[in-house]
Amino acid sequence: MKELFQMLPDPRFHLVYGITQRFSEGPSPRQVRLNREGFKLLEGISKKMLVYPHQKLGVHPSPAKGDVFSPIFGKITEVNERSIFVEAVEPDEELRAAAQSVEKVDLLAMPERGGELVPILKGLGLNTGSLGQDCETLIINGLNPDPGVTWAEPMLLAHQRNLHNGLEMLRRLSPARRILLAVPKEIRLQHHDVEIVHVPSHYPASVNALVIKAVTGKERPDGVGIVGLHNVWSLGRVAVTGLPLTETVITIGSFTHSGNYIVKEGSMIGELLAFANIEFRDGDTLVRGGPLRGESIEKLSRSVTKGSTGVFVVEAGSVPVMEGHSPCINCGACVLVCPARLSPNLLSRYAEFALHERARKEYVEQCLECGLCGYVCIARRPVLQYIRLAKHKLAEADAVRRLEELKPVGQGEAASGAAQGGN
Amino acid sequence: MTSASSSVLLAMSAPPYWHCGRSIRRQSLYILAALLPAVCFAVWNWGLPAVRVMALSVAVCVAVEALCQKLMGRELAVDDLTAVCSGLLLAFLLPADSPWWLVVLGAVTSITLGKMAFGGLGANPVNTVLVGWAVLFVSFPLHMDANAASLGTTFVDPLVRLKFFGAEQAAHIPLTDLLLGRQINGLGAGQIGALFVGGSLLCMRGILRWHSALGFFLGVAGIAAIFHASDPMLHASPLYHLCTGSVMLAGFFLITDPANAPSRPLPMFLYGLIGGGLVMAIRKYGVYTDGTPFAILLVNMLTPLLDMIRPKPFGVR
Fold first, then answer.
1. Which residue of A has its CA nearest to B311?
2. What sign does the dihedral B283-B288-B290-B292 (CA atoms) show?
3. Could you tell me if A274 lies within 8 Å of chain B, comparing CB atoms?
4. Is A287 on the interface with B (CB under 8 A)?
5. Is the same domain home to B63 and B91?
6. How many angstroms away from the CA of B148 is the closest CA of chain A?
7. Can you give the residue ranges of every domain in chain A?
8. How high is the pLDDT of residue B63?
């Protein structure tokens, strides 16, 4: 009955794709663009400098944010506020020797546990925010995050050593007393060292809050944390190689064709698509991240970062065109499909007319951002974008309000400062 | 990067980048396809006069909508075909022998007062088609009375038979006549079998929300069954009520109009149920033989109230 009246008959939404092929190595990039927002460059790192793989380029002031490393032999061509550009060069003897001298760290042999591991992992380029979060129960989200992304199954089934090491390190790092691995109910998986929970696998089941609900039976329970399989894989990768993390696993796909690759951090999307033999034409949309929750990219020289889940080409004509100014026609499809039981039709209109406080009263903050509202919208409204806008504006307003609460004190200090200046 | 690939113009968009593929236009096409069997039956039963009314109504609706959009300084959106659907549904409610001015007046009021005055598609508080119908029905009762308007036919009006001759007389009308549309009624509203086939297919495809349709039919049949059980001599069977008047048309195509219906499953079902109950109340105690359109106009007004029945959002305690 439910299937007959299913609003999402799209087979791609079933997040088990039967793909278990091991990941291919991605291209060796001719140029990389590394994110440096918030990073402080190490001394001596400057333009025109030659760098070697795994050479540390910058550190982030946050203890949970991994440092930035060069993924290739190359020359720094440009450094600006947001990015570091490195162009590949043929290494000379000296550079090769420097690359050889990068010390390997045997994480598994280390005695450190819990918080002591955080600075070590940071020094290996790992973000430990979600891995080391403070919680009673930690769930590993073993589902493909978005429809079309297919790396979760191979990660669970074909890269066992990596997964095993990742779990071992996670057990050492996480303060959680219980660590569970949530996998699609279709996958029969035996692991002696982690508790497996089988969860539904039809999108939006892979959204973090819904995985937690499937595992615990509760909506937003306290003391339960969740971490993506992608992060555990990165942790395992570092434990296996002993080298700083400079690569990520992504799905590169189009309507007809897709594959999973281990690519260097900072690889440019144009190069990746050419490597994966994916063609595109004028009018196609290029998506970084998943096809439902990702972001649209305006040029091919954008790069993938450690957290990227995929790169997709959406061919022009494969979906109805989004014109951007179409009004809501009250068809109610989004309300029926919303897994958070919200009214996206109202929320999107509130955001459209900048009535953000009303959106808050309609629980906009409970939105899981799964993107299904936009998927079913027959008027092709950017519903998810409107909701994100409302959330962003509300967060901004809250920040301003908090500042204003502090103001009397600040003004008092300024006044006394002025008084002192007068003396 | 080659110069060829860097010169590609990429389209920017907002997430999600995949889509179910449905659009307003495609939705309208589905509805028109579902109405097609009823159109064929209408032509078969009523001949060219039915074609005349349907064509005129559709043409006027589209023209008026285009004119309104022009006057309102909006982009022309008649290519979404919603005006065609409205025009056809309005024609379905009119007798086949309606004079041309009646059809034109109905179509103009439907689109102007029932749709564009509120800001266009989906903004109207009550059903677009029924606004036009109600204006005509109240202003020109004689022309709108299918029994009085259709003189050159051998068909009978089952509801008039029921109201003025009693249930026993009404029971003599064979069910196949009712199903095949051999009854005096609106020219398309009487094509019960064809509407049922088209409507149920649309419900299965998820284009129409089955909750309100099911609720509506259960409401009509349920109350009719209670009356029928209390005294079968006085009251017609539930099936008779389902197959007469515009119940079948309204249950599938009017009450399900999502712009006027609540949007969650339970409220939609209740909305249908109340609508069905109102139909029977008007038929039983009202002066009109078929209360369906008025029942739906009334229940449209309940939508904001019914929309207040809603589950708590995710994680809200």
1. A341
2. negative
3. yes
4. yes
5. yes
6. 38
7. 1-14+106-318, 24-105, 328-423
8. 97
